[in-house]
């Protein structure tokens, strides 16, 4: 095979098949690499692209996928120093010559035989970006001898994506009718093609998906209500939006506003658009998120963009959100920033929050910050909180999270912090978390503190008291465990001889009846030690 590729181009499929044998020995599962596609043209929609703030820097994608090494010997495109590294730039600018059928077959055969998975996928990405009507059949001739299976699924997904960019219907039909494999569904492969189709002709891709969705519903005996929007399955909808966002994120956004109500499903789909936008550059992404008049959609766009952008550049994300602080649509975005930034660079996150004015947005952000900071450094985070103005929203919400976190190890200290929260609703919410953790360690002390300090509404306090009355501490293997009386009674029942009856006494102990004899054990025996309890029962038989 190596000799065949190093000499003249193959004249028949023998060389191709030899290369495929080598491929099957060396291919490993690779996550599908998206083929880069420039956004060109816009689908008509209610929204249009606003001007992009030139002060926001662009993200450098740093593409570098040379394919010259895979072209036939003597190809003129190997000129230019012999490196071929300029081909990536030529492909993006549209100035490179398309690959002939012969070149595509030769190059794909060699690339697919590449044992290095990174080099193989990089070469395939650029080779398939040159796929068109003239060399498609040659590409299919190479692929048809590869039995599709999980460890080479990614290569097929890339082929279908590239094919669908100029013939979406053909690519999806091929995936449905010609590609079957154990562990790989036709749906997976159709969903690989759909983004490519939507990136060039989103309206046709949308029409196909609508028809498929309605046909699937009819097959299941389901009918849409008159006037109800067609909503594809989540995976298909995500595939459509992923590709549509490459061509026109504003039209894709309009589609979501028209068909989906606020909820997790729409947020996930908006996230696909946000991910695509941030790859175009933060300037374009910011212009997109800020363009919406729909308050709820704008909030979701801000949140999804903040999550993605924070993972790349939290400082820039913070600078952007600082311009929108305390706006109703920025609250969730600031929370995402706090979580992501605290993990990447806690000190910088803290300093950023120090620059903000008090308010609900800052407060919820500090709440998220404390959930990460308090377990890492209880003392320093506590000192920082103590320095915030008393009675401020930021301090109240920060203390709420701080107390909840430290109550896992030190509920008494957490209870003292609760007393510093000025807002009653915030204090009650934090008290429930603290007392819940405290009750796991010392339920009697937790209940006594709650009764004495009146931090819970009367109804919740009564529920806590009733729960406590139904529980008993027992020592199992040296550990204090709190169990319901019924569970303890059932456990004791297993230690008794057949026919014995156990009941709870009025004082919380147990009464055992067996063969006309009655034995009563007080609650302090239960509270003391479960093995001792069992010994006492056995000794009284």
Describe it:
Helix content is 61%, strand content 5%. The radius of gyration is 33 Å and the shape is extended. It is mainly alpha-helical and 541 residues long.
Name a few traits of the molecule.
three-stranded antiparallel β-sheet, 541 residues, two-stranded antiparallel ribbon, extended, 5 strands
Secondary-structure map:
Elements: H1 2-6, H2 13-26, H3 87-93, H4 101-112, H5 117-129, H6 136-143, H7 153-178, H8 186-198, H9 202-219, H10 234-247, H11 249-259, H12 264-280, H13 282-289, H14 295-312, H15 314-321, H16 331-344, H17 346-354, H18 360-376, H19 378-386, H20 393-406, H21 411-418, H22 424-441, H23 443-453, H24 458-469, E1 471-476, E2 479-484, H25 485-493, E3 501-504, E4 510-514, E5 517-521, H26 523-528, H27 530-539
Antiparallel strand pairs: 1-2, 3-4, 4-5
Helix pairs in contact: 2-4, 4-5, 4-6, 5-7, 7-8, 8-10, 9-10, 10-11, 10-12, 11-12, 12-13, 12-14, 13-14, 14-15, 14-16, 15-16, 16-17, 16-18, 17-18, 18-19, 18-20, 19-20, 20-21, 20-22, 21-22, 22-23, 23-24
